[in-house]
Design a protein that fits this description.
homodimer; 191 residues; six-stranded parallel sheet; two-stranded antiparallel ribbon; globular
Chain lengths: 191, 191
Amino acid sequence: MATGSSGSSRSPSARSARPEVSVLRVGHRPGRDPRLTTHVALAARAFGAKRMFLHPRDDALAERLAAVTHRWGGDFAVVPADDWKSVVRSFPGAVVHLTMYGLPLERCLPRLRRASQVLLVVGGAKVPPELYRRATHNVAVGHQPHSEVAAVAVVLERLLGLPKPARPGIARQRIVPSARGKRVVGGRVRP
Amino acid sequence: MATGSSGSSRSPSARSARPEVSVLRVGHRPGRDPRLTTHVALAARAFGAKRMFLHPRDDALAERLAAVTHRWGGDFAVVPADDWKSVVRSFPGAVVHLTMYGLPLERCLPRLRRASQVLLVVGGAKVPPELYRRATHNVAVGHQPHSEVAAVAVVLERLLGLPKPARPGIARQRIVPSARGKRVVGGRVRP
């Protein structure tokens, strides 16, 4: 999608100038209104993340996102994370905990842009305190209370740029930018 | 707050290079989980908007945001909008409907930056079709489905820049940016 990369971006020699970004959402509460976590996942996908690890797992949410990706293109996936610590521990890159208490994003951006892989970690209302220790960086997108959806979107936008309109043929369905009204090319019934 | 302006920013001669931004949230559903609209409001405030018009009104939500502003500073307010059309009609500036079907944000940004006042309009699941006609601009923050929280935050960030840490004395409570853990100065009990 927005990253424009194809195939493995793990090889340092082959990777583009932009990091591959994953998101880890901890403290999701299945059973409560899932819209907030859905919005985190949709924003992660739309702004160019490759995947969102979700703790605790929520298979219904993962399926809804798979349907979005099926229709709108790309290979974004929601990956169940029964143990969030092992995701953080085994991540082969910079682990960036997004928190209003952290260091200003602007100060951390140059280092993050040089990483080959970045994991953005966002919590819900209660963040496990050890996340502050386990993260490579604690980073604030402003030092005011706001939203994990906003934090993920703004960091991705600053790291990868604004997403471009989809190219023809990439997705089953794509939008043709329009000054008024809605123009969509393709549909849901193509094989 | 992030805009750094004080007093009236309505006077064209006195205004800074940055527009004053308001948000209009239509299609809020009081009674359902209010977190999504709360996140739109918090993101609007944190990224430098002056106010959020809310249709339909939700006094409990407005009070929660007033408490945040009381504690964390600034003069952001949630303004009830019983008639969203009159807000759009009477707005003295550019009305920007954020929709995945619109023109790319990047193309519209130069014009928006020159406006003295900008109203960002975000809908819920069902947007009144006439909004596409009544808006000055229909603008897409990417052409993929994502989130009104993300859209508001990214547009504000592109218009006004990333919010800076609060200066001492501005708010009852402020965060001191920190590489690990939480540092907060001030408290809730000061008069």
